[in-house]
Specification:
Helices cover 52% and strands 0% of the residues. It is an all-alpha fold and 149 residues long. The longest helix is centred in the middle third of the chain and has 18 residues.
Amino acid sequence: MTRTHERAEDTCPLVYQCRLPLSTSTVNHLADLLRRHLKAIRSRWRALPPGRIAVIVLAVLRHDQRLADLAGGNNVSESTVRRWRDELIGLLATQAPRLDRALKKIAKRGGEVVLIDGTLIPTQRRTGSRPAELLRQAPQSWPALPHPD
């Protein structure tokens, strides 16, 4: 019996298409962010156009696709997809309002509960102004704590 080191099947990787439920405005917004960033850092080129990079990053973020799978299907390396993901998350994060400013804005509008990550925390809140007045006065009646020097 002779042994061969060739594979019986074709070694070409298979690529499949899937539907990604995203709005055009979402993809365009992310692609525009990337275009502006590339212009600001004077990047000469990328392996793929910004719109395609945006779709790949959204597939990673939205459907938790493996980086190696998306990289292989687009003829780029896994580290390139990871770099694109981190870069676009950073660009989106710079657009988000700072937490302290967002909380002040919500407080001005009369908001009492803020869900930062979408987690619902059941609480039993008292209503009315009397408990709030007591809370404002409470720190004055508490004894002073010694300084930690």
